[in-house]
Amino acid sequence: METYRQNPSIAWNVIGDQVVALSLGEERRIHEFSEVASVIWQHLNSGINFEELHQVVVDQFEVEPAEARKDLRDLLDDLTAKGLVEVHP
Fold this sequence. Notes:
- This protein is of the alpha+beta class.
- The chain has helices at residues 35-43, 50-60, 65-81, and strands at residues 3-6, 11-15, 18-23, 29-32, 48-49, 85-88.
């Protein structure tokens, strides 16, 4: 099962309830995460699979499981495309 993990080259910090991340590659960018994305990001610190992340979202937020699954997939795809998250087999 694939696991998702933060890209170790990304600098980040929690400010209030929000994660702010800095891409340090050729295109330096600042990324501000929503409350939900911030919780997910912090769980990506040591590597976690999709189903475990899905359960975190359903447990911590008032959301239907099907909606959580779609939104989580979209978020992980976006974070991966931006180079913030790595996918490991």
